[in-house]
Write a structure and sequence with these properties.
With 271 residues, the chain is mainly α. It has helices spanning 5-24, 31-42, 45-62, 75-87, 93-117, 121-130, 134-141, 143-161, 163-171, 175-200, 206-217, 223-253. It folds into 2 domains: 5-200, no CATH class; 203-253. This is PTS system, N-acetylgalactosamine-specific IIC component.
Length: 271
């Protein structure tokens, strides 16, 4: 399956818009959001969203870099993986995620390269202000953003017009290897979710986690129903917490003491 130049240009523009979001501080550079736009352009939203949801679970954890490291970027799977899922019939979301994951590793290297070549721009921008060259200053101050936009546009455009090459490559892979990639791709969302849970989970949440597992594994409760039940519990926790804090503050203002021990006040573990 091949796509038109117009579709390639639209995906390039969509990739540029989404990728620029990480500079603007918005959540456009997310696998699910990227896949949704690609699916709309290619005319298969359902397949795109299924893949995007699979990739999003993985990048919930992979998208957090330890220290100053640059984590794998969802732009690669969001564009390439979605195109694979839509254009190659029979390719599972897990296999598409595994095949497109190397692009998630490639993108951080490009990000580092763009930052490196623009490292001295602040000094030049300062000099431009001192010289009164404000247009030059605006250009230098935005070269990193322009570099991100240009790279993402080219990446999305090339990925779309290279669909036939991607299809030839995937169809040449042995069935046993595709099966292995499918299994590996199925594990990536679990690993990503486990990574994010490792930073968010507290011992108080363990009963809720076990309850959710029992509801899905044994009671066969639908995911949507479980999500609504979880939302109800979350709101209940939130409002009860606000009520307890209000009562605690009221008691303190009246000269009373809080029931909460001092060593449990302050910053809690988790997010």
């Amino acid at each position: 399956m091949s796509y038109t130049i117009v579709q390639a240009l639209l995906i390039g523009l969509w990739a540029a818009f989404c990728f620029a979001g990480q500079v603007w501080g918005t959540y456009t550079n997310r696998a699910l959001f990227i896949s949704l736009g690609v699916g709309l352009i290619l005319g298969d939203v359902r397949t795109a969203v299924i893949f995007g949801a699979t990739a999003e679970l993985a990048f919930m954890g992979f998208g957090v870099g330890p220290g100053g490291s640059t984590p794998p970027n969802p732009l690669g799977p969001g564009i390439v993986g979605t195109i694979m899922s839509v254009s190659i019939k029979g390719l599972t979301p897990g296999a598409a995620l595994s095949l497109s994951y190397p692009f998630a590793i490639l993108v951080p290297f490009v990000i580092t390269f763009i930052f490196s070549i623009n490292a001295n721009n602040m000094a030049w921008a300062k000099k431009a202000i001192e010289d009164g060259k404000y247009r030059r200053f605006h250009f230098l101050a935005n070269t990193t953003l322009l570099g991100f936009i240009l790279f993402a546009f080219v990446f999305g455009f090339v990925a779309t017009i290279s669909t036939s090459v991607l299809k030839t490559f995937v169809t040449s892979i042995p069935a046993w290897l595709i099966q292995g990639l499918t299994v590996a791709g199925g594990l990536l969302p679990a690993i990503g979710f486990a990574l994010i849970m490792s930073t968010m989970v507290k011992k108080e949440y363990i009963p809720a986690l076990l309850l959710g597992y029992v509801c899905v594994a044994y009671l066969k409760m639908p995911i949507i129903g479980l999500a609504f039940a979880g939302a109800v519990l979350a709101f209940n926790n939130f409002y009860n917490g606000r009520k307890n804090n209000s009562n605690s503050n009221s008691g303190s203002n009246n000269g009373g003491t809080s029931d909460q021990p001092e060593d449990e006040e302050g910053i809690e573990d988790g997010i």
